[in-house]
Each structure stands twice: as C-alpha cells, then as structure tokens.
Amino acid sequence: MNKILTIVQREYITRVRRKVFLLTTLLLPIGFAIVSIVPALLAGYSSESLKIAVIDESGVFKNKFPDHTDIYFKTVDSSYDQEKKTYLNHYSGILHIPANFDIYHPGGIQLYSDKQLGLNTQENISDDLTKVVRNIKLSKLQIKQDSLDEVDKSVSFDSIIAGERGEKKGNTGMATAMGYMMGFFIYLVMFIYGAMVLRGVMEEKTNRISEVIISSVKPFELMMGKIIGVGLVGLTQFIIWITLLITTFGVFGLVFHDQLAAIHNHSMAANYSVQGGNAGEMIKLFSTASDSVNNLPMAEIIFCFIFYFLGGYLLYSALFAAVGSAAGDDPGDTQSLNLVVTLPIIFCIIIMTKVLQEPNSQFAVITSLIPFFTPIIMSARLPFGVPTWQIIVSMINLVIGFIFTTWLAGKIYRTGILMYGKKVTFKELGKWLRYK
Amino acid sequence: MSILSLNHITKTYEHYKALEDITFSVPAQSIFGMLGPNGAGKTTTIRIITNILAADSGEVIFDNKALSRDHIISMGYMPEERGMYKKMKVYEQLVYLAKLKGLSGADARKRVSYWLEKLDIKTWWNKRIDELSKGMQQKIQFIATVVHEPKLIILDEPFSGLDPVNSELIKNEIEELRKNGATIIFSTHRMEQVEEICEEIVLVNKGRIVLNGKVKDVKNRFKKNVFSIRYTGAAPSLNEADFSPEHKNGEETFIKLNNGKTPNDLLRTLLEQNVTIKGFNEVLPSLNEIFIQQVKTNHE
C-alpha cells in the first residue's frame, strides 16, 4: 500500500510540474470561453443584414412584406429584365414576382443574386412569401387580422414532475443541456486521461524501466499507482478549469454585459434570426436556467456525477493501461488495440444523443445499466430524474465492471510490460490471461 | 552456506521450454557467474529469482526460506536493458527507486547522497537522465541497484557500455559489496570478466544447465594435459607418441602428454637432454574456450 502511494506521488508530481500541464490548464478555459462567447457576441453584431429589392409585377405583395432585423425588403418599380444587373450594386438580391402570379397556383418567382444566398435566408424569404399569400387567402375568406391572431395564439404549458419526493417544475431544455454537458465532460475525461495513462505505460515499457520497478513492486501496484496518480492529475486539472471557467465567464459577463443583454432581448423578441439562432436560444435557455437548477436535486446529481466520473475513469484507464503494456514500441499495434477501447466511448456519444431525446425509454434504461456506457449515459440522464433503483443498479454494475477490467488489465499488463518484439494479437492476449 | 538455491526449476512459455530442471546453489558472500549465450534462459532464471515470474515447478530457497515477495527488498537487480525515467532528475529518481525498495524517505535520501558521493558524481544530482552519457547513466543504474543494501545483487551485463576506468570502478565496488556481506550474481557472456572476478559459475544453454562449479574446478575438468615450456638451447628431441607438440608461440612450446605420462616424465626427458628450462606451466583452458566448446556440443 505504501508503495502504491509512492508511485501515485511520483505520477502526480512529475505530471503536474510539467510546463505543458501549466499551459493546458491555463489556456484551455480561456480558449473555451473565447470559442463559446465570441460567436454569441458575433451573433448580435454580424447577422447577415440583407437588402432585397422586390420587383412585384403582379402587385400581390405590394408593401406586405414584414421587415425584420436581418432582411429588408424594398419594393421597386422597375422592369426586371432590363435593370436586374444594376440593382445588384445596391441590393443583395432581387425578388422577382411575375405579372401572372396567382396565389392559388403560386409559382414563377425568382430570387436573383450575384452569389448564392444562405440556406436560412432562402427559407426566411420563402416563409415570408407563404405568410403573405396565406394572409391574402384568409382575408379573401373574410377572416380579419384580429381573429387570425386569436386563432394563431400558441398554447404553452408548465411541466410538473411528480417525483419520489413530491412535485417540482420541470425544464426539458435545461435538463438536456445539463445532461449533454455532463455526459460530454465524462467523455473528455476518459479520452484525455485514458490517453495519459496509455502514454505513461508505453513510456515505462520503451524506457525499459518497468523491469527495474517490477523487481521492487507488483505489476498490479505499478499499474494502480499510475491510474490513481493520473486520476488525481485529472481531478486537479478539472477543478482548476471549472474555477477558471466560472471566473472567465463572470469577467466576460461583466465586460460585455450590455451586448449580452441586447442579444438576449433580440433573441427573445425576434421570431427567428439568420445566424444567431442557436446562441440566442441557448442564452434564452440559460436565462430561465437558474429557476430550473433550483428545482433539480443538485446534491444527488453532483454525488452521482462524481461517482460516474471516477468509476468511468477507473474502468477505462485500466483498459488503456493494458493496451499500453501490450503495444509497446510499435505505434501501429497501439492504434488497432486502442480502437477496441475507444470505440465504446465514442459509441456512448451516439447513444447519448438518442437518450437525451427520450431519457426514460427502455433503450435509455438498458444502455445506462451497461457498465461500459453507464458513466456517460447515466450522467446524461441524471437531470431528467432517474429512479433510485436504476442508479443503485448502475453503480453496482459499474463497480463490478471496473473490478473486472482492472483484473483483466492487470493480467495483460504484467505479461505485456515485460514482452518485447512480439506482435500482439488478440489470441496472444488471451494466452496472457491464462498465464500463472 | 548458500544464500540461494534453485531446485528443479522448469518454466514453459506455451510450446517453448524456457527452463528445464535448473538446479544450482549460490554460496553466500560469493561472486557467482551465470553464463550462457543469448536466449539460453538467463533472463528467465533471473526473473524467477527476482519474483517477476513464477516457475511452473521446482522451488527457490532464499536465505533458508522458500522465496516470497517479502524477499524482493533483499535483492537488487540491474537488468541488461537499462531503464530510467529519462525526464526525471538523478537524485529524485534514485530516491524514488529506493523508496520502492521499502526505504523510508529520510533513509532513501541519506543513502542516495552517500552513493553519489562515493562514485564521485555528486555534481550530477540535479541533471536529467537524458542529459547524461550512456556510461554515466550506467553508474546511476548501479546505484539504484545497490542503494537499499540488498543481500543479493543480480547484475546483468554490468560492464557493457562502460569505459575501462569506470569498469574498474564498478568492479572494485562489487568486490567491496561482497566484502561487506553481499552476494553477487553476475550474468554475462563476456568470459574474460567472469574468469577475473567470479569464484563459481553456472553455464546455461537452451534452458538447461551445462556446467556448474568453481571456476578452478571447471577449468581442471576441461584441461587437456597440455604444458608450456620455455627453454634456451637446442631443441630437445621427444618421443612424439608420449609428448606430442601442439604448437609454438614465440619462446613458448606447447606439449600434450599422452599414454599416462606425467609432467615429471616430461621434465625428466628434457633435463636429460641438458635443456635449460626457464618456465614450465600447465595450460588450463580459458572459460571462453570451454564455453564455446560446450555450447557447440550442446547444439550438435
């Protein structure tokens, strides 16, 4: 036990002291903040602002286009064929409605531009056209605008979840965002730190120091020491990242307070926006998030999340250690072996997107109970509320799972770490499992 | 008294017999040579002694007890393929390895400092391993092997890559460790070194023991009854059936004794012919010759 501690200490200290650690720890949150905040800011400023000239020879659409922030319509009296080229100096596009346009058989409209307009713009223009035609048809049926607004009013509802501990207000958007973030976080952890364990083991093998160490400690102790040491590095790094992220977001929030508020209002008010749609939605979502967060059982979620985080890391890092020990100096071998371990992790993300849509489906329940998927899938399901029995079963499965992978990895590791110059196949690995 | 005995050790890897019925003992406080060509089973034997591998059958007795993991702190092993963390500093690395051998932090630091001073490399303490030359790394590796004062020190090709000065230095350290009570197993295929420093040897080939015993005894066993003579004066005439001349080397003439003739018979014949004898020696085969001969016959 004492020796594992000595190993853990070395693994931790040598990594944390490296300049690379310091750089990635400091730069990543800043990068992340820039990547996530800048598009939000840009969305407010640079939405493609288009001026569209409307040449309406039919007169059907005259002054009926609604202007919005992103597209301005200007009806011009001109002949389309003669002047379309000159108009392009002033307008992004020319919408030509032919004289014979019939609202009951709409067709023949052309959008003329010097470059291809975005998909969103095209859809928006098409929506506008449809809306105008629809309104004209409705008024022909003698339905007034007021009555129409009445009819169009959308019906919303509050979602109340009757959980095991009483009723609470639900927020699917919030739950989805949070579930996604937690699942993705664990995905990252497994990849970054799994790879770190893998590299560490390979380094020891190629340096030939493993034999020196194995003559002092059991291979299993060396493997566990490395896994725990790297795990602690990960924990340290993530604690620093989260602290820095909260701080940077806070600072950005203060500095760009007005801009963010503007985007917020804009996205609340606009029916749609050309580019900032998602960012706007996200901000809208987060503006109501604080209420929803209070309604979630945060203590429980955090506890489970940390459990899945650690369980998932232990389960996969043991497998990465085994791959590192088996592969050694040949990068080609490592890649194919590595794929076997990384594939289930990548698969998890695919499953997760499906699970987030239907978090309580049979598919979601079953996949979240399989230990290889549990860490990511269960974390994604947590904000939606998971029955206690499922959490307990998944945790037991995860513990059994990681004991199993550690045992398996230990067997492969102790043979692999001393094996040189041999092509490692799965058959070969099978043999190693049977060695005394 | 022996510190280590291997009794009927066998080890099989799948279809390949790495060791078959290996039995030998290492006397306490001796320098013991384990010889054999590449792939003979030396490393497997060492790995069984150092508890890295388990034998399929047979037993290992260390210090009068069946070998167990508790014994590994009483051993120091320097593998042929040297290994160090390249990016770690000399001092840190040595303290780490000493701690893994069970020394407390304070003890580890004290002993590492002692050895760095003893081998006159104190100034390297804060250098990274990859900044050192191969020979320098070797010295560090040697310290790592002996820092915890093991009873049994196993050195696999300890002199490879060392210059003559440093070879001599390490040789003296090995001798001193032995004097202070340690036993050294020295695995190599460099015979001249074995002859120089080992008292007893075991020769392994293809997983079996070919030869075992004191260097002196082994040499005697393989001597061919050849004597070298240095003399002045006219060449003596000898009955070639009894005293067949082998070859000449400068002043030295090598003569093989046949038909049960003794060295005294040869001397008598020579003296009778008034030859002035300046030197008369029995020629013992070098370990190298024995080694090559044994390995060859073993292959046939």
What does this molecule look like?
The complex is a heterodimer of chains A (436) and B (300). Chain A is of the alpha/beta class and 436 residues long. In chain A, 69% of the residues lie in helices and 6% in strands. In chain A, the strands form two sheets. A four-stranded mixed β-sheet of chain A has the order 2-1-3-4, covered by helices on one side. Chain A has a two-stranded antiparallel sheet with strand order 5-6. The radius of gyration of chain A is 30 Å and the shape is elongated. Residues 268-277 of chain A have low confidence and may be disordered. Chain B is an alpha/beta fold. Chain B folds into two domains: 2-220, P-loop containing nucleotide triphosphate hydrolases (Rossmann fold, 3-Layer(aba) Sandwich), CATH 3.40.50; 224-283. In chain B, the strands form three sheets. A six-stranded mixed β-sheet of chain B has the order 6-7-8-3-9-10, sandwiched between helices. In chain B, strand 12 and strand 13 (252-257) form a beta hairpin. The longest helix of chain B is centred in the middle third of the chain and has 16 residues, at 164-179. Chain B is elongated, with a radius of gyration of 24 Å. In chain B, 33% of the residues are buried. The interface between A and B is medium-sized, with 22 and 30 residues.
List the helices and strands and how they pair.
The complex is a heterodimer of chains A (436) and B (300).
Chain A: H1 2-16, H2 19-45, E1 50-56, E2 71-75, H3 80-87, E3 93-97, E4 110-112, H4 119-140, H5 145-152, E5 160-163, E6 166-169, H6 172-207, H7 209-214, H8 219-255, H9 257-269, H10 277-287, H11 289-295, H12 298-327, H13 331-357, H14 362-369, H15 374-381, H16 388-416, H17 426-434
Parallel strand pairs in A: 1-2, 1-3
Antiparallel strand pairs in A: 3-4, 5-6
Helix pairs in contact in A: 1-8, 2-8, 2-9, 6-8, 6-12, 6-13, 6-15, 8-12, 9-10, 12-13, 12-15, 12-16, 13-15, 14-15, 16-17
Chain B: E1 2-13, E2 16-27, E3 31-35, H1 42-49, E4 57-62, E5 65-66, E6 75-78, H2 90-100, H3 105-118, H4 134-146, E7 152-156, H5 164-179, E8 183-188, H6 191-197, E9 200-205, E10 208-214, H7 215-221, E11 226-232, E12 243-249, E13 252-257, H8 263-272, E14 276-283, H9 287-299
Parallel strand pairs in B: 3-8, 3-9, 6-7, 7-8
Antiparallel strand pairs in B: 1-2, 1-4, 4-5, 9-10, 11-13, 11-14, 12-13
Helix pairs in contact in B: 2-3
